[in-house]
Structures are given as C-alpha cells and as structure tokens.
C-alpha cells in the first residue's frame, strides 16, 4: 500500500512536484544567465526603459535585419486557440490520428494490449511515456520507414491499472509490501522504459499503422549495452556484471534524442539519478561519492520505483542499490549509477546490434543532442543540454573528420567536449573540458579524461560555465546554421539572482536562446548569442520582434524544439503537472505545439493536446506531408484520491472508461500539402 510518510519525506515524490525533476545540485558560484543578461542591459543603459525596451535592444543586437530579409511567411495555417479539453486540436484543413499508443504490440507473438499484460508481454509492446522520436525512411520513402521513439518514464498506476485500481496512489507511486516489490511488476516497469523501434506504413486509406517486421525491437532498462569512448574500461564503471568496465545493462529516462549524420539514433538519459539509491554513510551521515552526489542519486531510502526491492533479489534488480557491499567494485554495484547519464547509440536498421553508450558526449541529465549542419571532410559537432536548474549547455567536436559512407559511431569516441559560457557583451565562449584545460588537472581533482567525463558537471563548474534555466532541446537551422535551445523555466531562481531590469525571478515561463558560431564555423571556440523569444502571457512575454505574445501564440515552458527542412521552427511545451491550468500558467491552457518563422518572427499555435499531458517529439516524413508528434502522460494530473475513486481526468485516446495512454499522433493535411506551410 501507499506509504505517505515515506513518499512525502522525499520532496521529489510530493504530488506538487514536477515529474522526474531532479533536486538542484549545482552549488558552484558561476554567474547565472540572468546575471549576464542583466549586465548586458545595464551596460547599454536600457534599465530605465522597462522590460520591453531593454529586451528589444538585446534581441536586435546581433541578428538585426532578419525580418527585412524574409520572403513570404513560412506559416500558412490559421492559429488555433488555447484549449483545456481532453482532445487533440489542429488547424482547419488538418487531420490528427493516433498511432502506436503505449501497449501496442510490435514483436514476438504480438501480445494484445490489456490492463493486466505481464512484464514479458510489455517487452514486445510499445513502451510508456513517449518522448523524443525520429522517422527513418526506408530507401528515402515517405510512406515506409522505422519510427524510433523514447519512453521517458512510467505512471505505475496506469501501467498496473488492473492491480492498482482503487488504491490511493499519485502518478509516481508504486506498491511496496513488507519491504518488497512484486518481481513481475518490476519487470514490466523496466520493459516499459527505453526505446521502441517499429516499422510503420499507411494502409490504402492513408491511415498509418504498425507493420510486423524483423526490424521491430524494444530496447529497455535491461538490454545489454557496450560502454564506448574514454570511460570504457575505466575503474569508474567496474561492476559485478562487468568486472572489466566495458558493459552495462539498460537505458533509462530517455527524454529527447538525436540523429547522427550516418543514420543511427541517439537516445539520451535524463533524470536517471533518482532510479538509484546509495545507503553509504559515515558518522551516521550520507557519504556518497561526488559522481553520485553531484547528480542527485538518492542518499538512502527507496529509489524512484524501488526496483532494488524486487522480491527475488535478482541481480538485474538489486543493482539499483549502489551501496558498497563487497570487497571491491567488482563485487557489488557501487558503480552502477556511473553507467548512466550518457547518450546511447542505437542502429535501428540492425536489430541484432548492441547499443553503445558514447561517453565522450558527457555525463549529465541529457535532454537531447543535435548535430550542427555537417560537411564532408570536417569534424562533426553536436550540442546537448543538461536539463536541471542552474546546469549547462555543452558541445562536442570530433577529432576525426566526417566521411560520408565511411564514418560511424566511433567518430563520437574521440574529440573535445566543451561547456558554454555566455558573456555579458553578447559573445560566448566554449570552455574545453579536457585534461590540462581550464584547470582540469589532477591537482584540482580531475585525474584524467575518464574522470572528467564521469564528473562532467563538476568539470563544467570548475571551468566556469554559465548556469542556465534548465536547457532542454536544441535545434539547428538547416539554412543558416544558427543554434536554438529551449530554457524551459527555473522557478527556484531567486530575486537575489536577478536585478530590477529582469522580471524573471522565479522564472515560470522560460525562453529560447540562440547563437551563431564565430565565422559560422561549428568548431569555433567563440559565438554570438541572443534571445529568440521570452515566453509568457501577454503581460510577461516578448516575441522575436520585441512585442508581447498574443492570444494566437502565448505559451510557457518550451521544451521540444525542431527545425523542418524549410526552417520552420516547431516549439513544444511542457508545463509541469502541478502548474497546468492553474495560477499564472492558467492562460496557456493545456500543453501545445507552435510553429515559428525565424525570419519574420511570427509564431502561431498549431496544436493543443489533451488533459494532463506534455507535447514532445516531432518529425516529418521526407516529403513533409506527414508529421509525427507524441503526447506524453495524459491524465497525470489526476490526484491520488481521484485515482482511488476510478477517476483519471483524461480518457485520451480511447475514450470513456479507458485508462489514458501516451501515444504518437499522425498529422496530415486534407489537401495533402506540406505541414505548416
Ligand atoms: Fe525530460 Fe527535460 O524533459
Ligand atoms: Ca523534454
Ligand atoms: Ca520538460
């Protein structure tokens, strides 16, 4: 049964806490983004002019004249209104249909979705809580391809709906009896995490569905994986399972994703730390190593879902308890958390391939990864955000050049990782996180490259990177090379951290930052930056032209971000469950997706989702006439009391009496045209 004492002892489990968010762990003294923005405004003498004047000046600083340069608008649809209903709404002339909901069978003997599916059956079905996603066309087709998607986390009361019916459980709670968890429940939860690869195609009526195919595959929290890059074989990842530190099992909390220039899928491990607990103590106080503490591994108590409490005590479950129990690291799982926090490469076209953790991309709460426009014969460059309050934006530059048809994932194993510093004059610097650079020496506690990468956050602290408001997705304009990143919010930024020119203490709404690399060279060590939009309601926002957002485009908490081939920028929102349709976030309604034309600064609301969910994941077919987006965690706002009474707030997508299910949505135009145009 639910244990309120225990649940509320851990603040991350409280019903009013946003799902999966980590406690703020960055206690270093580096300047905040707002310190810098404020300094920039102050120096220019705009403080007296109020927010609109000041931020307009900042907007125009390095990207002036773009509206004049634009041709016709990239946006050809009429904006839709803010919505609070339990449905998907798209503009007139568009159609939205559900595809691949949680539980849809894809492999094995294709077990049909039931509320009491076993853990093994879940291993052959689409996972829960859909997130980042890509469509890999087969032979360039726009009607045949592999849909690959992440499953970020789970809602146990929905996952075990048959068993958990009538119990007073909040959206994250699991049942623990006599200090143990049911083994098959644990298996089902691990199998509902990870990645789904499934072939999809439309039928004769144009309705897309799953195609039974040898490519179809689930990668889960249990799948064996190689550790690649500089951390491979180091003492940091020696475990009982892998005494030589070359392998680990599973990928967890897969948020956004990336697509490599050589056509593989990258899945990113975001809020993985809470899945582990470590009871090590000294003098009756928690005594966690820095590579656990700096990321928020739990110091005692039960892990997020208590998998270490599985009744069988099986090895694949007890590893979530990282307490030292043996003589050496090869005798226990003290290093198991060090196998997480990475970007994982999966080849969707080879279902027998072993996923690889690409450790040179750094270890943090990886939201996603996005590549700069690639050129043959030049290094590949990838950008990534660490989504926690006051964390950093990173860039990786490969040592070897990209050679089309030759390069593979090993290109990501050698190069340089950098952290971003945003200077007060609108310039920025990339700070190398490498041995001997920026003070990262043994004398300062960084023994070698593997040590720096396992402790990426600490290395970035030491180098002096700029603390950001929760960096989420990045996107690179395919036509200009400019890089955009969403900064979703940071409600814990205090007034002391901002000044009078900046009204964003307790930033509830978020903003989108963009930069241009020096000489338009993605490998450059410096860049110029600007703000694209400051999100909020009509009184607290500024659009790309320095005007307040309007009823057609107010939004908050930008998260998903993606450029289509025409440079239309798609913006997806993730207002946390505790804030949706309440207080200052009430005017934004349910989470939504908007489209922007970066050349003109226009933004229009394109889609609104059902109750309790976030919109995340977006891609089109190569012809841009079919778009896929994901709806994650509908119904998550239902309270424990409502669940006990059989109420779920949302019944999307299956309707009355059903359990809500995360699902993909396929969007097409009635006239068959390009989406958004
Ligand atoms: Fe999983 Fe940062 O969103
Ligand atoms: Ca996200
Ligand atoms: Ca988010």
Give a short summary of the structure.
With 677 residues, the chain is α+β, with helices and mostly antiparallel strands. The protein contains 13 helices and 34 strands. Residues 1-25, 33-70 and 499-503 have low confidence and may be disordered.
Number of helices: 13
> What is the averaged pLDDT score?
91
Overall form: globular
Structural class: alpha+beta
Distance between the termini: 52 Å
Domain count: 1
Number of DSSP strand runs: 34
The major β-sheet equals: 9 strands, antiparallel
Low-confidence spans: pLDDT under 50, at least 5 residues? Answer: 1-25, 33-70, 499-503
Strand order, main sheet: write it out: 17-18-20-21-22-27-26-25-24
Any overview of this molecule?
This protein is an alpha+beta fold and 677 residues long. It has one domain (2-71, 98-669). 12% of the residues lie in helices and 27% in strands. The protein contains 13 helices and 34 strands. Strands 17-18-20-21-22-27-26-25-24 form a nine-stranded antiparallel β-sheet, with helices on one face. Strand 24 and strand 25 (483-487) form a beta hairpin. The longest helix has 11 residues, at 33-43. It is globular and about 65 Å long. 55% of the residues are buried. The model is unreliable at 1-25, 33-70 and 499-503 (pLDDT under 50). The chain binds MU-OXO-diiron and calcium ion (CA) (2 copies). Residues 255-256, 367, 472, 559, 574, 616 line the site of one calcium ion (CA). One calcium ion (CA) is lined by residues 255-256, 367, 472, 559, 574, 616.
């Amino acid at each position: 049964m639910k244990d309120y004492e225990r649940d509320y002892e851990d603040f991350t489990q409280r019903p009013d806490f946003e799902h999966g968010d980590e406690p703020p762990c960055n206690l270093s003294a580096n300047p905040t983004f707002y310190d810098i923005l404020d300094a920039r405004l102050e120096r220019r003498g705009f403080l007296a002019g109020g927010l609109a004047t000041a931020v307009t000046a900042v907007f125009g600083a390095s990207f002036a004249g773009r509206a004049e340069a634009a041709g016709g608008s990239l946006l050809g649809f009429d904006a839709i209104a803010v919505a609070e209903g339990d449905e998907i709404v798209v503009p007139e002339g568009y159609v939205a249909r559900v595809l691949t909901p949680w539980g849809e069978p894809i492999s094995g003997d294709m077990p049909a979705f039931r509320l009491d599916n076993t853990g093994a059956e879940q291993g052959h079905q689409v996972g829960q809580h859909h997130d980042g996603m890509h469509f890999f066309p087969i032979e360039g087709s726009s009607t045949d391809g592999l849909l690959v998607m992440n499953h970020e986390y789970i809602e146990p009361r929905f996952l075990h709906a048959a068993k958990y019916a009538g119990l007073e459980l909040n959206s994250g709670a699991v049942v623990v009896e006599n200090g143990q968890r049911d083994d098959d429940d644990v298996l089902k939860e691990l199998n509902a995490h990870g990645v789904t690869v499934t072939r999809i195609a439309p039928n004769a009526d144009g309705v897309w569905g799953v195609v039974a195919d040898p490519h179809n595959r689930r990668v889960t929290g249990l799948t064996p994986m190689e550790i690649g890059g500089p951390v491979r074989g180091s003492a940091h990842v020696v475990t009982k399972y892998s005494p030589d530190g070359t392998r680990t099992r599973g990928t967890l909390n897969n948020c956004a994703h990336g697509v490599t220039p050589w056509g593989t899928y990258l899945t990113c491990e975001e809020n993985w730390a809470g899945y582990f607990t470590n009871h090590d103590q000294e003098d009756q106080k928690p005594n966690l190593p820095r590579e656990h503490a700096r990321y928020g591994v739990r110091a005692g108590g039960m892990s997020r879902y208590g998998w270490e409490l599985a009744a069988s005590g099986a090895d694949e479950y007890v590893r979530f308890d990282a307490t030292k129990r043996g003589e050496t690291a090869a005798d226990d799982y003290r290093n198991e958390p060090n196998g997480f926090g990475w970007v994982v490469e999966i080849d969707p076209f080879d279902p027998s391939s072993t996923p690889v953790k690409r450790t040179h991309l750094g270890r943090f709460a990886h939201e996603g990864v996005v590549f700069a426009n690639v050129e043959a014969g030049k290094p590949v460059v990838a950008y990534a955000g660490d989504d926690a309050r006051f964390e950093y934006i990173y860039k990786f530059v490969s040592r070897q050049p990209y050679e089309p048809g030759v390069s593979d994932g090993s290109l990501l194993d050698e190069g340089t990782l950098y952290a971003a510093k945003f200077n007060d004059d609108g310039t920025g610097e990339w700070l190398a996180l490498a041995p001997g650079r920026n003070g990262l020496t043994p004398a300062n506690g960084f023994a070698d490259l593997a040590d720096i990468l396992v402790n990426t956050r600490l290395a970035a602290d030491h180098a002096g990177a700029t603390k950001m408001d929760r960096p989420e997705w990045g996107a690179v304009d395919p036509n200009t090379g400019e890089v955009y990143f969403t900064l979703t919010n940071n409600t814990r930024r205090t007034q002391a951290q901002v000044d009078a020119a900046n009204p964003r203490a307790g930033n509830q709404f978020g903003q989108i930052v963009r930069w241009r690399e020096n000489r338009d060279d993605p490998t450059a060590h410096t860049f110029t930056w600007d703000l694209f939009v400051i999100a909020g309601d009509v009184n607290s926002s500024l659009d790309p032209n320095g005007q307040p957002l309007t009823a057609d485009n107010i939004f908050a908490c930008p998260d998903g971000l993606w450029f289509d081939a025409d440079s239309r920028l798609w913006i997806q929102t993730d207002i946390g469950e505790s804030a949706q349709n309440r207080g200052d976030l009430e005017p934004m309604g349910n989470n939504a997706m908007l489209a922007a034309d970066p050349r003109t600064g226009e933004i229009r609301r394109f889609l609104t989702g059902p109750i309790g969910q976030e919109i995340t994941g977006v891609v089109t077919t190569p012809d841009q006439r079919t778009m896929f987006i994901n709806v994650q965690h509908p119904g998550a706002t239902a309270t424990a009391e409502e669940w006990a009474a059989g109420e779920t707030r949302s019944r999307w997508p299956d309707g009355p009496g059903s359990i809500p299910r995360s699902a993909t949505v396929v969007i097409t135009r009635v006239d068959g045209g390009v989406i958004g145009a």
